[in-house]
Amino acid sequence: METANAQELLRSNLSRVRIPEPTNRVYKSECCISFDNPRSEGGLYIDMNTFLAFGKDCVGWNYEKTGNPVYLHIKETRKLIPEDRPSKKPTLLAIGTEGGFDNNEVEYEETYSIVVLPGHVTFPFPSVELPEKVRLAADAILRAEGAERKEQLSAWTADTKKVSAHAMDLKQINNGVVIPPAGWKCVKCEKRDNLWLNLTDGFILCGRRNWDGTGGNNHAIDHYKETGHPLAVKLGTITSDLEAADVFSYPEDDSVLDPLLAQHLSFFGIDFSSLKKTEMTTAERELDQNINFDWNRIQESGQDLEPIFGPGYTGLVNLGNSCYMAATMQVVFSTQSFSSRFYKNQALKVAFETAPADPTVDLNMQLTKLGHGLLSGKYSVPAPEADDVAESATSTSMKQEGIPPRMFKAVIAASHPEFSSMRQQDALEFFLHFLDHVERGNVAKPDADPSRSFKFGIEERIQCTSGKVAYNRRHDYILSLNIPLHEATNKGEVEAFQKAQKGSEGKDASSNEIVRPRVPLEACLANFSAPEEIQDFYSTALRAKTMAIKKAGLTSFPDYLVLHMRKFVMEEGWVPKKLDVYIDVPDIIDISHMRSKGLQPGEELLPDGGPETEAESNEVAANDDIVAQLMSMGFGHIPCQKAAINTLNAGVEEAMNWLLSHMDDPDIEAPISKGSQGGAEVVDQSAVQTLISFGFEEDVAKKALKASGGDIEKATDWIFNNPGGSGSSDMDTTTSSSTPTADTTAGLPDGGGKYRLFGIVSHIGTSTQCGHYVAHVLKEGRWVIFNDTKVGVSVNPPKDMGYLYFFERINN
Hints:
This is Ubiquitin carboxyl-terminal hydrolase. GO terms for molecular function: cysteine-type deubiquitinase activity; zinc ion binding. Residues 314-810 form the USP domain. It is a single chain. By secondary structure, the chain is α+β, with helices and mostly antiparallel strands. The protein is built from 22 helices and 28 strands. 38% of the residues are buried.
């Protein structure tokens, strides 16, 4: 095109060019549809109207969708280093900085141009011949802090706390106070949640009252105003990772760091500094010593691993303690359900066309982007090496750069303050959070929901001393298993080793010498199904508390069964301990015997209680011990009560499972009203009609409004959180007036009980909130290790050291 005509083309589209303001998010590091970046073959195109970035293959789709024709093109080209370049003598003791040692990193040169679509008419930039508005807009885009960088910085900044000015010389008063590990309550009221321990006098007081009346009664801050005692730590946030504890300074009115927190806690009997002298911390010390051993075993360090490239073998860049997410997603996208939904049956262009104006905030778009990035093989190629006089080691040429899942993390973590941070997280919690969001995103089309392939039903049969029974049913994504150490197959060797250690005069055994208990997976599964006594069970037949027997089973078998090994236990002294144990996991398991049988002939169901009886049950049924133990883990009082009540005081494990699956319920913090489960509740018919107009059934709408106090928005959230609400709710207790044959597994996958192990997520470290996660996946008949960007053939997969085990049902 002639120069004059080209300039006229650009001027005719100036109305579609905007100069970014400081509040605008500018993307210039990565395509919002693919993982192309300025270093990719076609570079990166920034839409000069929306400031979204697109790779070479995607920019045309954006033009077709938006009509925006003007783009700033950024291309980074690798610099060629002359072979005869002399080695620079370092003048600084540093690497990769001017004057320091050469770190052999590849260097790139940036070039810019202005491109007008659809003809890809190109103008050099910078150039005085460009219209002033284009020059100003391009300069502003290049100067702007990239949106990706902003999000990363905000995540780090959110975690930054300052050391309190009152910590180092804090005066503590000896009141003879010793803080127990559980059962706390405010000394001025009866509140048992949102409690703070004043580090000066040991008073336990409730926190601030929120604007909506929730929270505490302001007793902690009132105490500060009366006494001037400056620092308090929130109970339930104290673990062996003291930096993660929530310490608040009232004079500074902010969360702070207390470098002497261990000393200040020990003053009230929570003595971290002396733990190494106790028998329990000897085991902790051994565990710390063995972390290096675990690290080497799980990461297969020292093994000559063969790197793998191609479709399905793409690594994920660690964004800063994001290995929990990387390991989980590598296994998830190895399943047929997720690979089909977001790769084989979902084109990038289709996902973009159906996405909102900003595709970076759309979960479907970002999951499709991640699926194509991981499975297409486009980004699973050897990373470029720096050309230098000295030849690079051959191993470096076999590395891959991997893909950075920044946009996916931003979307999936948007509603979760912990996952939004740069701190390490629990892979199990992330997995459940992820599946919950996928399910919500597919509520209108459940048949296309890949999360359902993990979902199954659990049924608990409870029989009290009256002889009558109740059936408690719920849905879950994971089977959480306790580890019965008494079932270890090598108890004799373990006892002999422990005896030898006691006589070794304090000399620690080497990593290879330590004998760990070996517990068969079959024993863990049997423990789940074994009969269990329930004390203080409220029987509607006897109208009193009594003893009952509980037995659990599965009402359906999912396509993919996820087993969670409970390796972390809370011990005396507030110390979370990781069990140093091996689990012998076979490649094939059969859980057919775990299928529940439902109501049997001759069984009589426990009667429903009348309004008075049910109200009495709600008041007294929550077992104080269960509630206290849950609260000691940091949960609020009301949710803990609801967990105990809704699991019929079956135990801490059951209540914890209920809590984890209901923490996002809109009414989880709502007070438990007397008689709320008995008697008829009147709902606003106009609100019912509104929900019906949204496409929900009438009975579901009524249930949602009852559960949400008549609030339409909360009721909508309730329906999304309870997709089984059209039956009897996500959790259903069958009693005499219920339909015992009600199908609570309708729509869930089901089949035989034979499964094959195909994925392992392993954890290295003393806590799920620290350390490192690695995935091993069975692909094409061989085990593959996914360790962030490192992908290779596994030589010795750590099948006995997993935290999460993924099994695929074997279909006949």
